[in-house]
Amino acid sequence: MNTISNIWNHPKTSAAGLLIAIVAIAGALSQQGISLGNAGSGSVVSLVAALATALLGLLAKDPDSVQQTSGQASRQASGVAAKLGAWLLIALLIPLPWMEGCTAVTAAQDIVNWTPALQSAVAIVDSTAAVLAPADASIFTSATTAFDADSNLLVNQAKAYLANPSASILAEMQTQIVTLNQQVNAALLQANKITDAAGQQHAMAAIEDVATVATAIMSLVESISSKAAVAQMAAQSAVKISAVAPYFNRPRAATIVAAHYGESIGQAEVQIDRVEQSEIAAGL
User: Fold this and answer.
1) Would you say residue 147 lies in a domain?
2) Which of 10, 15, 210, 241 is least surrounded by Cβ atoms within 10 Å, i.e. has the fewest?
3) Which domain holds residue 241?
4) How far apart are CA 85 and CA 129, in angstroms?
5) Strand ranges (E), 74-181
6) Running DSSP on this structure, what letter comes out for residue 245?
7) Do 168 and 267 have their domain in common?
8) pTM above 0.90, yes or no
9) Average pLDDT, the chain
10) Are 71 and 110 in a shared domain?
11) Percentage of the chain exceeding pLDDT 70
């Protein structure tokens, strides 16, 4: 009876607890690879977790519906707001299983670990023009011609940074990953202009694999970069990820990420969503 009374007398507290529970359960479901189906480009689980966190944020900022007139009432309202703000922070800090601290060394190692997948994806791009119609092959080749040089330079920089992490090599990587991402993003927009449906699908699939790996590396470089460096990277990014996100094959991207990290498709989907939102927020 006391439990029911407490829920009735403290609705905001009860709502906050429920939302935190939803976020925690969503994380547990994602860990087990349970997505509960698709919601747009993501999964139902990731959507529910995001909505619960957003609602908790609104709840924390929501002013008391009753006008506070006395000093005691004002202090009570401030106390409630502070508690809700703290609960919001707790919800945001509830870690999903793959979200771990990223040091310069671990990020550099992960970047190097991604390089075979990058080189393999670029090799597929190199062989794709041969199966396209001549007019489509011309569009495709001109859009992807710089992939080899840009990816090879990034691979060498990543290996050099892992061997000797330094600010100068990191700065080179920041410039190079932006260059590669811009090439890939522009290529996606160009390949979308191929009129033959089968040819367009083939071309887009090849570029999307490179885009998935390049985006993952971009996120890793961003994670070990200063805010000023990320702002500079964003300023150099003319074609933003938001402009090409609609062309991504999300299931295919999730398969690539899941295979790389040895995780479930559900985990990879949430990871991709978080990376995409992080890079959009950074202006990349």
Assistant:
1) yes
2) 10
3) 104-281
4) 54
5) none
6) G
7) yes
8) no
9) 77
10) no
11) 64
